[in-house]
Write a structure and sequence with these properties.
This protein is an alpha+beta fold and about 400 residues long. The chain is built from eleven helices and 16 strands. It is about 30% helix and about 25% strand. Strands 5, 6, 7, 8, 13 and 14 form a six-stranded antiparallel β-sheet that branches. The chain has a five-stranded antiparallel β-sheet with strand order 4-16-15-9-10. Strands 1-3-2 form a three-stranded antiparallel β-sheet, covered by helices on one side.
Length: about 400
């Protein structure tokens, strides 16, 4: 049995168990009857009953058991890291952008009342030219020439205008690729952007890159992969006269949304089965939100959302460095024999990992005993519970 005096630690301990040996796990959570005892000091025990391979269901059930209220005054303290690798390909067609302080990049053009950050991943195909062009011209395409709302009030109307301007920026960037003579019409790129404005997170995606938010240890997918196998995309494509053949759009492209690839697009004024119009998702960050992972499909082809979140959480506890986390994500995908280029960005919402679950916060270190685990798993669990 593992016993901890910190309910926040339990989720991580069980996550480690889920990932290492997992289980049908039986949770016995005992809270003293006295009203004077807070939930923070409640004794929590976990009995490991049997072994299975599912980590996601365990982690999800743990988190729903230990729900805590979030402060509406939360303000993220942004820091990030990124890493890219050519993988087994002959060239790396990925590009990415990582800007923790957007006001520093835009200077006098930045008029928003809150700090903001901007991140993007571009996964090129048919060459690297389209992805490289978007990276080089991102500030102009997404901000300087974009119809961004300028107001002191971050309200619903502002956020709606911000979303609309970001969609428009994707379409303008697509047109810029068509107008650029140096970029062939059979060259294109997927694109995923993440804009953080104060506590507001806006994700825009066209293609199969993916953004995953870690909320109290649980992976929350923040974007939809635009692949021909996705039923809604298949229906949209077919309604516009396109077709899916052997998993490819019109028998040629593995995604249904992308920038560039103008040889597959209809003339201006006609809607094409292949579109650059992004899906956009917004959320308000709270103290439950720990970090955001943005990765190209080379990561997600070989890792589940929850596996990636668990890996980054472990790395943050060990090194407290998002750069190390991004590198380890890429290296783990390489070890799993991914067949593509690899790019990962990790954006943390706290200045240090000390506030994350797993830290003892100066309280007495818990005693524990466990059985049925390997020696390596037992050492990892001991380090986790003792806050190392």
């Amino acid at each position: 049995m593992i016993v901890s005096n910190n309910p926040k630690m339990v989720a991580e301990a069980a996550e480690l168990l889920c990932e290492q040996t997992i289980c049908s796990v039986q949770f016995n959570i005992s809270v003293p009857e006295s009203d004077s005892v807070s939930a923070e000091s409640a004794s929590v025990s976990i009995d490991v009953v049997s072994i299975s391979d599912s980590a996601l269901s365990c982690a999800a059930s743990i988190q729903t058991t230990l729900v805590e209220s979030s402060s509406t005054n939360f303000s993220p303290s942004i820091r990030s890291g990124s890493h890219t690798d050519i993988g087994p390909r002959k060239s790396n067609e990925d590009e990415h952008i990582r800007i923790d302080d957007l006001s520093n990049q835009l200077g006098a053009l930045y008029r928003w009342p809150l700090p903001s950050s901007f991140y993007a991943v571009f996964d090129g195909h048919g060459g690297s030219e389209a992805a490289s062009y978007l990276k080089d011209h991102a500030m102009k395409l997404f901000f300087i020439d974009s119809d961004l709302p300028q107001t002191a009030d971050i309200d619903e109307l502002f956020l709606e205008k911000l979303e609309n301007s970001h969609c428009k920026a994707f379409l303008q960037a697509d047109q810029a690729l068509a107008d650029e003579c140096s970029i062939r019409d059979d060259c294109g790129t997927t694109a995923l952007t993440a804009l953080i404005l104060g506590r507001h997170l806006l994700i825009a995606n066209a293609g199969d890159c993916r953004a995953v938010l870690c909320r109290k240890g649980v992976a929350m997918q923040m974007s939809q992969d635009h692949r021909p196998s996705y039923l809604e995309e298949k229906r949209r494509v077919e309604a516009l006269g396109g077709f899916i053949e052997e998993g490819y759009l019109n028998g040629e492209l593995a995604v249904t949304r992308a920038l560039g690839d103008w040889y597959m697009k209809s003339p201006i004024g006609f809607e094409s089965p292949l579109t650059a119009r992004p899906d956009v998702m917004q959320t308000v960050l709270t103290e439950d939100d720990e970090f955001l992972i943005i990765g190209c499909d080379g990561i997600w082809d070989v890792m589940t959302n929850q596996e990636a979140v668990a890996l980054v959480r472990r790395q943050l506890r060990l090194y407290d460095d998002p750069q190390c986390c991004a590198r380890e994500l890429v290296n783990q995908a390489l070890r799993r024999d991914t067949s593509d280029n690899l790019t990962a960005i990790v954006v943390c919402f706290s200045s240090t990992a000390g506030g994350h679950p797993g830290s003892t916060g100066g309280r007495q270190r818990p005693r524990f005993r466990c059985s049925g685990l390997t020696e390596e798993a037992r050492d990892r669990l001991r380090n986790l519970l003792e806050g190392n």
